[in-house]
Amino acid sequence: xxxxxxxxxxxxxxxxxxxxxxxxxxxxxxxxxxxxxxxxxxxxxxxxxxxxxxxxxxxxxxxxxxxxxxxxxxxxxxxxxxxxxxxxxxxxxxxxxxxxxxxxxxxxxxxxxxxxxxxxxxxxxxxxxxxxxxxxxxxxxxxxxxxxxxxxxxxxxxxxxxxxxxxxxxxxxxxxxxxxxxxxxxxxxxxxxxxxxxxxxxxxxxxxxxxxxxxxxxxxxxxxxxxxxxxxxxxxxxxxxxxxxxxxxxxxxxxxxxxxxxxxxxxxxxxxxxxxxxxxxxxxxxxxxxxxxxxxxxxxxxxxxxxxxxxxxxxxxxxxxx
Amino acid sequence: xxxxxxxxxxxxxxxxxxxxxxxxxxxxxxxxxxxxxxxxxxxxxxxxxxxxxxxxxxxxxxxxxxxxxxxxxxxxxxxxxxxxxxxxxxxxxxxxxxxxxxxxxxxxxxxxxxxxxxxxxxxxxxxxxxxxxxxxxxxxxxxxxxxxxxxxxxxxxxxxxxxxxxxxxxxxxxxxxxxxxxxxxxxxxxxxxxxxxxxxxxxxxxxxxxxxxxxxxxxxxxxxxxxxxxxxxxxxxxxxxxxxxxxxxxxxxxxxxxxxxxxxxxxxxxxxxxxxxxxxxxxxxxxxxxxxxxxxxxxxxxxxxxxxxxxxxxxxxxxxxxxxxxxxxxxxxxxxxxxxx
Lengths: 322, 341
Fold this sequence. Notes:
The complex is a heterodimer. By secondary structure, chain A is mostly helical. Chain A has a domain at 96-270: MetI-like (MetI-like fold), CATH 1.10.3720. In chain A, 77% of the residues lie in helices and 1% in strands. Chain A has helices at 2-29, 34-41, 47-57, 63-75, 89-124, 129-143, 146-160, 179-215, 219-226, 231-268, 274-283, 287-315, and strands at residues 81-82, 87-88. In chain A, a hairpin with a 4-residue loop joins strand 1 (81-82) and strand 2 (87-88). The longest helix of chain A is centred in the C-terminal third of the chain and has 38 residues, at 231-268. Chain A is globular. Chain B is an alpha/beta fold. Chain B folds into two domains: 7-224, P-loop containing nucleotide triphosphate hydrolases (Rossmann fold), CATH 3.40.50; 251-337, no CATH class. Chain B is 28% helix and 24% strand. In chain B, helix 4 packs across helix 6. The chains are: A mainly alpha, B alpha/beta. At the A-B interface, helix 9 and helix 10 of A face helix 2, helix 3 and helix 6 of B. Chain A: It comes from Geobacillus thermocatenulatus. Chain A: Its main location: membrane.
């Protein structure tokens, strides 16, 4: 097991290399550079000064030199300087990563809390009214874009009913570390997390439902019935355990997907996390931030795949990784 | 006849729902299984033999299946029981051996736990006792190193070993009736013989009655006391095993026996029965169901409402067409060329 994980991490090195080259080239191919954004903010800037700044920042060096410099710095934990925020990217990220992790975790937990009971009801009692309701919900959920749904939620529960705050991650007036502070954080988290989970969950509901429908007609379920096992145990021990396997394997990917999914949510709810920063930085051509964030989500994807494999091998005895 | 038979199947009809209407896959079948008796159910695929077996165990999905008639097991009608009442009989009094050992075991449970599962509900044994009994069972079905296999998962065993585990599950609580639904069909020929040998041995030791479902006539000859030949949901001939093999009467039984390749008589061609079993919803519900496949026998030779009649003690045949049956002339046969040299 340990050997497998080490080997997988070794394989990740060339993958990361390719990823970094790709990201770097794409960032370079974006129209404009870091200074174009500043120019927009301050059109009176002298072209002569701009050129000097470019020279000083190394933006006129050959591409491969720039790439090597970028990688070297990155390996030393220096993700560069955000031109718009005039602050090291690492500091910028550090202030926000906690919020994104919190939001992602909340979405993940809510997603599974909703998906598992609904999927079970729907898969076990197929074609009942409950199943039809759940399937109906999941089709609507599939068809609804997250950013539209989040806007509706924001309008109804945040603006119209006023049950939840409409932006930020915490009330600025409360003191850090107090109970009120944590409650305020939770209060700010609820709406974005629920919006994300309600949309995110439909895929898992559908998946679980069809897994259960497939599993309940399998031969080993007949064997169990022929043993005289009560119906409840048939479901728990035989059908559900087998149906959860692919869902468990999904978990790893799900974690990765949430980082990308948070881009819309964080922007709509003005939630100060990585996703919001990502969108802002693209708008402002703050490419050192953009490349850092893309790189992070790339690493997260690779780690997520590894995580999925590890989870699967832990729950399925047929998959033993050596 | 004073003793109560183990299982009395009375006018059993099992119907499946196809596009809204019900069609009988098992049609008016009556059969008695005595204690310590092996009855073979023979017939080609789709003749209703598995549907019959599954209905005894109550394993048909209730929303798509209609089971009518009576299934008297030791005097209790199984069809009148609720699922939880039935669960006291399934696994304890009646054990079932399934066809495909590759799919009949739960991939996520160890062999030991799967065998113990039925004991959990039928015999209240302390954990140690249960494990000992399970290991004895594994030994009994011929599994080497039972202590190790106890902790194994199904995928770590070969097909033959898995079928032994399936058998161990079926006999875990020493049932008085075993239903073996084509227990060797999915196995290699050499393994088939071993498994049949094992079943025979277990039957002798435990004095269990067996309903053996198969289309392998070799297996029938070796194990069965009595044989029920099924065609298109009906029993067409019922007799003891010697009579079936030496004095078969019904055209279908005779055709089946005719199509066994024999090592003694070197034939260039294999006999085949013309046509196929019609699909369930196209089955003729009147007259002799085998008539379309022996078209050279005149319609007037068949009964309009074919009955199963006792033609000699213990030998039952359906329809009168057997009296006039002969194998077709050469030019009428459509035979398979079997590599004639």
